[in-house]
Amino acid sequence: MVPSVDQCLAIMEEAGMPEHIRRHSIMVERAAGLLAQALIQEGADLSEPLVRAGALLHDIAKAPCLETGEDHAARGRDMCLEMGLNEIAPIVGEHVRLEAFRPDGEILEKEIVYYADKRVNHDAIVSLEKRLADLIVRYGRGRDDLIARMRKNFDLCRDVEQKLFGGLDFEPAALAGLIEPP
């Protein structure tokens, strides 16, 4: 089942998602939805409702996992499976790190949500570089190994960016200007 936007908002409320994570998720949904629409217009075989639901629920487990230290993507995937949201679960589970990426393959919903999440810092659309810098400060904890993994993940995200924008008539830098402020 792919929940509607309203159903996702209700799930977020029921899960007790804090307001700042809710604002972030809504902005990720707006960016991902815009990209999905543009890609569909260019002929991509995508489900816009699946992209929107995955984007809204991608951080469903973030707040409790900040306290427990669990992997919030894995816990969020499990929560989705528990709710019967089997189509959403893989998107949530891979929004931090894509398990497999094919630059020459068809565009997948999980790639759009993964990318959109990397472009939204708190509730503002920023460059990949600015988002990475913020994540290093907030989560890097001065650990060179962790920071190196973050940098490698963003190198992959740049590849995803090239794939997503390859057939679009706007550049990544234009994304923020295409989304109406909340």
Short characterization:
With 182 residues, this protein is mainly alpha-helical.
Question: If you had to describe this structure to a student in words, what would you say it looks like?
Answer:
This protein is mainly α and 182 residues long. Helices cover 63% and strands 2% of the residues. The protein has helices at 5-14, 19-41, 48-57, 62-68, 72-82, 89-93, 109-119, 128-139, 144-165, 175-178, and strands at residues 120-121, 124-125. It has a two-stranded antiparallel ribbon. It is globular, with a radius of gyration of 15 Å. The two termini are 28 Å apart.
- As residue ranges, the low-confidence spans are none
Major pleated sheet: 2 strands, antiparallel
Q: What number of domains?
A: 1
**CATH architecture annotation name:** Orthogonal Bundle
Q: How many strands appear in the DSSP assignment? A: 2
> What oligomerization state is this entry in?
single chain
The spatial strand order of the largest sheet comes to 1-2
What is the CA–CA distance across the termini? 28 Å
Number of helices: 10
Spatial shape: globular
